[in-house]
Amino acid sequence: MADTDTIERLVQEALPWIIDIRRDIHRHPEKSGQETRTAALVAARLAELGVEVKTGYYNTGVVGVIRGSRPGKTVGMRFDMDALEMDELTDHGFKSTIPGMMHSCGHDGHTAMGLGAAKVLMGLRDELAGTVKLIFQPAEEDAQTGGGAQYMIRDGALEDPKVDCMVGMHLWPDDMLGTVGTKPGAMMAGSDPFIIKIEGKGGHASLPHRAIDPIYIGSQIVSALQSVVSRNVDPFEQAVVTVGVFQGGSRYNVIPETATIQGTVRSFNEEVRMLVRDRVIAIAEKTAEALGGKAVVDYRLTYPPLVNDRRVYEKVKACIISELGEDKFIEVARAAPGGEDFAFFAKAVPAAFMFLGYRKPGEEPVQPHNPRYDFDEAALGYGVRVFVRCALDLGKGD
Ligand SMILES: [Zn+2]
Ligand SMILES: [Zn+2]
Questions:
Q1: Which of 43, 93, 267, 381 is most buried, by the most CB atoms less than 10 A from its CB?
Q2: What is the percent of the chain with per-residue pLDDT over 90, rounded to a whole number?
């Protein structure tokens, strides 16, 4: 059985290669769903390593399959590949060469870790039980089209061979370098946007009785939406309902025809998620109706809450501790309010998601989605070690 020293040595040997790949991808960031260069790079590196490569998952998705020397479970690992539409303002030598595009969420690091894990695992194949499926996913950042994860699942990424359990990881600014954190249950929020279009009847400001005022109706809806969390959600559960847009009117003395409200809902389990959706729709429709207008609600269920399976969590926790040591494991106290489409994988198969720390003592890390975002590449080595350990230990089964 590969011990920690062997894995650490193999990862250290692979680290310059992993960092080169990370910088190559960083220089060439690609938009969600258009990761063609990155996908080609991933497929080429996997093929060079002798990994079986499968393509044709949601356009740019790539799957690498590593079969161990004896039977066992199939362990899936997800790595996202997309960048964000923004200019990079860092001053390092491997800065984005594509104007208006930047890897500011660390997905370049995630993809490089996936290839690093493939390289190390190919060297440990004799000791590998079961199968490892490396799932390189497009469009994590694109919640508006539903995210790449669910379309990779639709296109068969979890079949042939069938994935028994999954792990995933995100570089995490708030945790110290070398640590890996996780928790049982809710890990990240479900994130669902809504648009409410209020239809009234326009008219002269001095004759409100002859009009139906969509701004007044909208105001009542915005107020009433605050009752969803305070009056409908169990006080021991959590949810957020935020209205971020309220638009209507063109002149101070005109009652407009329509008004629009847009907002987002965060939730941490499916029950609360559906309760909030039903209440938002009912409040908007019934309030508008009671006040003589009409509300048309476009409520989109995009990323579900990311919920870690307790058994996979226990195993992953044991992997982190045996590979990096007790002091490097972080029991994450609270779910993060951001959305993450790994949630679709975690709904399909038992899974656990992890946070990979890169914060240095005394340094205030730059948060993701910032034009000056950067992470310490030393974190990648710790991440790859945990992925390799998870492949070896989870592949053995119970
Ligand atoms: Zn992001
Ligand atoms: Zn991200």
A1: 267
A2: 95
Cβ pair 308, 155 in contact under 8 A: no
The H or E element spanning position 381 is: helix 378-395
**CA 227 – ligand 2 centroid, Å:** 32
Mean pLDDT across the stretch 335-348? 95
Q: Report the C-alpha gap between 373 and 171 in whole angstroms.
A: 12
Hunting for tokens 């009234």 — which residue is that?
200
The pLDDT of residue 2 is above 80: no
Asked whether residue 33 carries a pLDDT value surpassing 80, the answer given is: yes
Ligand number nearest CA of 168 is: 2
Spell out the domains of the chain, with CATH numbers in brackets: 4-188+305-395 (3.40.630.10), 190-299 (3.30.70.360)
CA of 258 to the centre of ligand 1 (A): 34
Q: Please give the distance, rounded to the nearest whole angstrom, from the Cα atom of residue 346 to the centre of ligand 1.
A: 18
Q: How far is the CA of 368 from the centre of ligand 1 (A)?
A: 6
Tokens, residue 337 = 């309010």
